[in-house]
Specification:
CATH topology of the largest domain: Jelly Rolls
Number of domains: 3
Distance between the termini: 38 Å
Helix content: under 10%
Number of strands: 20
Number of helices: 2
Strand content: over 45%
Structural class: mainly beta
CATH class of the largest domain: Mainly Beta
Largest sheet: 9 strands, antiparallel
Radius of gyration: 22 Å
CATH architecture of the largest domain: Sandwich
């Protein structure tokens, strides 16, 4: 369960906010509590963390917000991180065949939306049937927190795992190192079969740990060794792992077709790290509050972001999780560009 902290755009240095940049600034600060995401609602800035901040971290967060300039990071070569600048750009590429009048040119070096030849792509396409969160790649559920487990106990914490990995955020521990045994039905990615297994996760202190198996149903947790104790936040997740390859993300492109005047999009791209915690790569927010009316096939929106240079090692259990909170969107496509690392 996430904890929300609320600010106003007038709390920032220039009375404006770029959610993705603000998220990056928060993660670069001394705050150690995991950031979930940042979004905006009119003049409100909503910042979500995996758990409550300490009083010192709250002070730090207020300072980060007050110093936020509301402009894109220069090192990302991107002049339009938020759709408020969408129609103000005059250097949009005319060579792009999808929706040239509404496309965003990423930087002055590129020709239109032409990308270097050695970039690979993977893409997702959805026709959303409802307003709300749509999962494009993977998922990450954080339904419980501060669960206790002692020697000799066998506990079940999940409602259901849906072919999910298990992650444990150990928040308190006594008697380390020891094994937490996760038992249940597991699916094998290679043989496509199911079996009852028990996997030992060795914990040496506080922090994140993850299973190497996917589980179905409700797995059980236990500590066999004597005089051991811990508290943890159990999580379950899946991700897109680039076919277990080591890659470098370079850019993304988002295209959408609104089907109502009050449309909105909030995109989150996370790196699922090898220990089972997620790290925000980018957060993009688009809305129709100050744009010309877009609706249907005649006015698609296109946005491209570059300069990520973000390493992901699928061979070590890493990947991406991509979700989009959307309202009145009839069709949505996302393309990720990446390079394989040999």
């Amino acid at each position: 369960m996430t904890v929300e902290y609320n600010f106003n755009i007038y709390d920032t240095a220039n009375d404006k906010v770029v959610p993705g940049v603000l998220a990056t600034e928060i993660e670069a600060s001394s705050i150690t509590t995991e950031l979930s995401h940042v979004n905006t609602d009119g003049e409100d800035i909503n910042i979500y963390f995996s758990s409550a901040l300490s009083s010192q971290e709250e002070t730090t967060l207020s300072g980060v917000v007050s110093e936020h300039l509301g402009v894109a990071s220069e090192d990302r070569h991107n002049p339009a991180r938020h759709a408020h600048n969408f129609t103000a750009l005059f250097d949009t590429p005319v060579t792009y065949s999808g929706a040239a009048p509404n496309a965003v040119k990423v930087n002055e070096i590129e020709t239109g939306l032409a990308f270097i030849e050695d970039d690979l792509t993977t893409s997702w396409h959805r026709n959303p049937l409802y307003n709300g969160e749509v999962v494009l790649a993977g998922w990450y559920f954080e339904t419980l927190s501060d669960e206790s487990l002692s020697s000799g106990e066998i506990k079940n914490f999940y409602e259901e795992c849906e072919n999910s990995f298990v992650a444990l955020n150990i928040t308190a521990i006594s008697g380390a190192p020891f094994n937490i045994t996760v038992s249940g039905t597991s699916s094998n990615d290679f043989t496509k079969s199911y079996e009852e297994i028990s996997e030992n996760i060795t914990v040496t202190g506080t922090g994140y740990y993850r299973s190497t198996h996917r589980f179905l149903g409700s797995p059980y947790f236990s500590i066999v060794e004597d005089n051991k104790y811990c508290m943890f936040d159990p999580k379950r997740y899946s991700m897109y792992n680039f076919n277990f390859s080591k890659v470098t993300l370079t850019r993304l492109e988002l295209e959408w077709l609104p089907d109502g005047q009050d449309w909105g999009i909030e995109l989150h791209v996370h790196h699922l790290c090898s220990d089972g915690h997620k790290h925000l790569i980018d957060s993009l927010t688009f809305d129709n509050s100050d744009l010309f009316v877009r609706s249907g096939l005649e006015n698609p929106g296109v946005f491209s972001a570059s300069g990520y240079n973000h390493a992901i090692d699928g061979s070590k259990g890493e990947g991406v999780i991509i979700t989009v909170n959307q309202f009145f969107i009839g069709e949505l496509s996302l393309i990720l560009w990446y390079r394989e690392v040999i």
